[in-house]
Amino acid sequence: MLTAAIVTAAVLGVAKVVRDWLILRQVRAAMDAGTAEDRVRIGMRLAEALGGGQAAAAPEPPAGEVVTPPR
After folding, report:
1. Would you place residue 23 in the very low, low, confident or very high pLDDT band (cuts 50, 70, 90)?
2. Which of 29, 53, 59, 61 is nearest to 42 (CA)?
3. Where is pLDDT greater, at 4 or 62?
4. What is the DSSP string of the chain?
5. What pLDDT, on the 0 to 100 scale, is given for residue 51?
6. Any idea of the CA torsion for 49, 55, 56, 59, to the nearest 10 degrees?
7. Of 60, 63, 24, residue with least CA distance to 42
8. Each residue's pLDDT tens digit, 8-18
9. CA-to-CA distance for 32 and 39, rounded, in angstroms?
10. Alpha-carbon gap, residue 10 to 16, rounded angstroms
11. Distances from the Cα of 35 to the Cα of 4, 18, 23, angstroms
C-alpha cells in the first residue's frame, strides 16, 4: 500500500514537471516571436498567474505620456 502511494506521488510529480516544462517552452517561444509590447503583456500575465499581484497595483503613466519598454 505504501509502495503504491509512493509510486503514485512520483508519477504525479513527474507529470507536473513535464507539464510545467511544456508551458514554459511555449511561453519562451511566444516571447521570442512577439514584439516588445507582447513581451510586457506576457510577463504581466505570468506574474498574475504566479501570484505576483503587483501588476494591478502598478501606477498608471500620466495621461498623454507614452511609455515604451527598453529594447
Report:
1. confident
2. 29
3. 4
4. -HHHHHHHHHHHHHHHHHHHHHHHHHHHHHHHHS-HHHHHHHHHHHHHHTT--HHHHSPPPPTT-------
5. 76
6. 180
7. 24
8. 999 999 999 99
9. 8
10. 10
11. 48, 28, 20
Question: What are the grid coordinates assigned to 19, written together?
Answer: 507539464
pLDDT tens-digit series, residues 24-56 = 898 889 888 888 888 888 888 888 887 765 545
- CA triple 57-60-52, angle to 5 deg: 25
Q: Which three cell numbers stand for residue 48?
A: 498574475
C-alpha cell at 3: 509502495
Residues contacting residue 31 through CB under 8 Å, at least 6 positions apart: 38, 39, 42
Residue carrying the nine cell digits 514554459: 24
